[in-house]
Amino acid sequence: MPSSATMYYAAPRLEEVVAMRVMDVRLPDEADDDQWGELHIHMARSEVGKHWTDTGEIDEELGLKGRAKDT
Questions:
Q1: Mean pLDDT of the region 67-71
Q2: What are the CA-CA distances from residue 57 to residues 34, 46, 54 (Å)?
Q3: Given a cut of 80, is residue 67 above it in pLDDT?
Q4: Does residue 40 or residue 66 have the better pLDDT?
Q5: DSSP assignment, residue 53?
Q6: Where are any strands of DSSP class E within the chain?
Q7: Angle, vertex CA 55, rays to CA 43 and CA 22, nearest 5
Q8: How far apart, in whole angstroms, are the C-alpha atoms of residue 53 and residue 26?
Q9: Which positions ≥6 away from 66 have C-beta within 8 Å?
Q10: For residues 61 and 55, what is the distance between their CA atoms, to the nearest angstrom?
Q11: How far apart are CA 49 and CA 70, in angstroms?
């Protein structure tokens, strides 16, 4: 899970942070002039009661809000 500083400055939704993986974060090399990294947020994972999901699981993988599927 990303650090609290990453969550503060990038401002993702909590459901997006829970779904992030290490391979979704790209950091620059130390020698690079540009020290900006990239976060690839591709899905959201909401945690709700299992009677609220279609699968009966306590969490559900969802697409990102306001974006078309597979973008």
A1: 64
A2: 42, 11, 8
A3: no
A4: 40
A5: S
A6: 25-26, 38-39, 44-47, 59-62
A7: 30
A8: 32
A9: none
A10: 10
A11: 26
Model confidence pLDDT, tens digit, residues 5-54: 777 888 888 888 888 888 988 888 999 998 888 888 888 777 666 776 67
H-type helices in 11-68, by residue range? 14-19
The answer for residues whose C-beta is within 8 angstroms of residue 20's C-beta and 6 or more apart is: 1, 2, 12, 39, 41
For the chain, domain boundaries = 4-62
Q: What is the pLDDT of residue 31?
A: 92
CB atoms within 10 A of CB 2: 16
**What predicted TM-score, i.e. pTM, was given to this entire model?**
0.56
